[in-house]
Amino acid sequence: MGKLSAVDGLLLRIAQEFETLPRQLQNIASYLERERANIMVQRINEIAEGCEVHPSAVVRFAQRFGYSGFTEMQAVFRNDYTEASTPARSYQQRIRKVIADGEAGMPPSHMALRFIDASRAGLDELTEHFDARQFDAAVDLLLQAQNIYVVAVRRTFSIASYIVYALQHTTKRVHLVSGLGGMYHEQIRSIGKNDVLIAISYPPYGKETLYCSRIAHQHKAKVLAITDSALGALGREAQVTLKVNEGSAFAFRALTSTICLCQALFVALAYKLELKVEETVHPGEYDE
Fold first, then answer.
1. Which of 182, 202, 212, 274 is disulfide-compatible with 151, CB 3.0–4.6 A?
2. Where are the domains of the chain?
3. In this structure, which CATH number among 1.20.1250.20, 2.40.240.20, 1.10.510.10, 1.10.10.10 belongs to the domain 6-84?
4. To 10 degrees, what angle do helices 87-100 and 70-84 make?
């Protein structure tokens, strides 16, 4: 698997240890996930107030995960968010880093093989940590849904577009929340309690995707999150979370594992729907 960013790595460790943390530290862990984009500018007293803990608990939390104190942990969020919030610049910086690392002379075909290897590593990770129970629950959610809404932005928008295309080959009513014309609110407002929202996002989470998830919750709809962590801002409140950690090469993440999982989700749903149809058809009804 490709190397995680420092914040992704920290949040993954937090997710793995979350259940063993004291209640106060769990509050801090949840706050960091929820406010990860703002941690870089918040003072320790603000974070403590938001978590309803004493500032010393924030220091203990940082030390629990290997930092000398709050300031060192905050710097990790600041560095990651600075890169993520300026995608055009960070793309250029990543290319320049490839050159600086002495990989500029690498033939394009070798670069392609590195990406293929990274994608393969991501698929291996997906297989190794595949949660059959959550996947089956995801299929059941979609099977029972009257309407299926799908939202993803920027890097993952192509995945949302594909899964809508695929699901439209079933009998389900499917809606792509594209935000065309800035109309996220108008496109998601009709979601209801018998519907499902498929929300796809990875850190830094798309604010539009998180907004649609909140609206779905308010309208009593179910949320199927495809993301990196069940503890993250998207996965934490979803009814079902399918976790994906993509491989990466040259600091660029692949989408191979996500598209594979979405294709598998469509095939499994289509299979279930066909079984459901066959159960209602009497023997010989298809005979001419």
1. 212
2. 6-84, 131-279
3. 1.10.10.10
4. 100
Q: Which two tokens stand for residue 28?
A: 């801090």
In this structure, how many other beta carbons lie within 10 angstroms of the beta carbon of residue 284? 6
Strand-pair category, 248-249 with 252-253: antiparallel
- DSSP, res 258: H
**Chain-centre distance of CA 79, in angstroms?**
21
At the top level of CATH, which class does the domain 131-279 belong to? alpha beta
Distance CA(213)–CA(233), nearest Å, equals: 10
pTM exceeding the 0.90 threshold for the entire prediction? no
d(CA 214, CA 217): 5
Phi and psi torsions of 150, nearest 5°: -130, 130
CB 11 within 8 A of CB 235: no
Nearest partner of 201 among 150, 268, 130, 135, judged by Cα: 150
Per-residue pLDDT tens digits for 118-174: 778 878 888 888 889 999 999 999 999 999 999 999 889 999 999 999 999 988 999
Q: How far apart are CA 93 and CA 51, in angstroms?
A: 35
Using a 10 angstrom Cβ sphere, with 0-12 exposed, 13-18 middle and 19 or more buried, the burial of residue 139 is buried
